[in-house]
Write a structure and sequence with these properties.
Elements (H helix, E strand, L loop, with lengths): L2 H8 L7 E5 L4 H12 L3 E6 L2 H14 L5 E5 L5 H11 L6 E4 L17 H23 L3 E5 L22 H23 L3 E4 L14 H14 L3 H4 L1 H8 L6 E7 L3 E8 L5 H13 L2
Parallel strand pairs: 1-2, 1-4, 2-3, 4-5, 5-6
Antiparallel strand pairs: 7-8
Helix pairs in contact: 4-5, 5-6, 6-10
Length: 287
């Protein structure tokens, strides 16, 4: 897979455009930023660690001296932090919002809003950002790009346990939160008319896949690097989402079994109308 050749055929110049991205310091986020910078975009990095985002900015500037990189600190586990970040973003000019932050296997706690923290990070806070910033993005003719996951297949919603706080398996908890986020974006587009793309990288070797116990991870990490696409190739689904709008129940991801290959837009067949309407009703009561 020739990444440069693919970009030449599927991407356009982003000179004069600004992209806001959450979770920019992770394995996938860093590669997304590098490609966006190579296309001429300026970046706003939204991360909880100022130290990590500062180091990431320095790395980007060393590669792309003309880029403008702005840092904005926000912790997706803390809704007040997210609200402050959104108020700051409302005073700036930007074109695209990439919701890339994610948490998989982390210590589980209840947030101030009363939700499981994985659900808060992956869905609640990022949906708040999207909803708060949708009017500005629509006015600029931009787009919201949301990183979903094939893990949404692992679980079906539970109307009596919406955040899966009673579950212990990380894949179920993570998958449920991504299912909510993806449906919320289809709803947001329907409600506001803002363009959205729901994308997924398949399976790639990033911090999220490094959640296994150390001894097990030491054994499986090398085969994983061979079997699954590296983050630089996996992130092409996100880049395609910058230039391509998804309608309801469409998403963009690797074309071969949702795991390998160049990105392709396909129809989701894993979310029922009943689930969509229930998740929509939850979105209406969040804030």
């Amino acid at each position: 897979m020739n990444i440069k050749k693919w970009l030449d055929s599927n991407a356009e110049s982003l000179n004069g455009k600004t992209v806001v991205i959450t979770g920019s310091t992770g394995g996938l986020g860093k590669e997304i930023c590098k490609i966006l910078a190579s296309l001429g975009a300026d970046l706003v990095l939204v991360d909880r660690s100022l130290q990590k985002s500062s180091a990431h900015r320095d790395s980007l500037v060393s590669l792309f001296p003309d880029i403008k990189v702005t840092l904005l600190t926000a912790d997706m586990e803390d809704i007040e932090s997210v609200k402050i970040a959104c108020e700051i973003l409302k005073t700036t000019t930007f074109d695209y919002l990439i919701l890339n932050a994610g948490a998989y296997s982390i210590p589980r706690i209840k947030t101030d809003m009363g939700y499981d923290n994985v659900f808060q990070i992956n869905f609640v806070s990022q949906y708040y950002m999207a909803r708060a910033l949708a009017p500005a993005i629509k006015a600029r003719g931009g787009r919201i790009i949301t990183v979903g996951s094939i893990a949404h297949n692992y679980s079906v919603i539970d109307k009596n346990d919406i955040d899966f706080s009673t579950r212990r398996k990380s894949n179920l908890v993570y998958g449920n939160s991504k299912r909510y986020l993806m449906c919320a974006m289809y709803k947001l587009s329907n409600d506001t008319g803002v363009d959205i793309s729901v994308v997924h990288p398949g399976i790639t070797f990033t911090n999220i896949t490094a959640h296994y116990p150390p001894l097990i991870f030491a054994v499986i990490k090398h085969p994983m690097k061979v079997i699954f696409m590296p983050a630089r190739k996996a992130c092409l689904s996100v880049i395609k989402g910058v230039f391509d709008t998804c309608e309801k129940y469409e998403w963009i991801g690797p074309r071969i079994f949702d795991v390998w290959g160049l990105p392709k837009k396909t129809k989701l067949k894993t979310i029922s109308e009943d689930e969509f309407f229930f998740i929509s009703s939850v979105c209406d009561t969040l804030f």
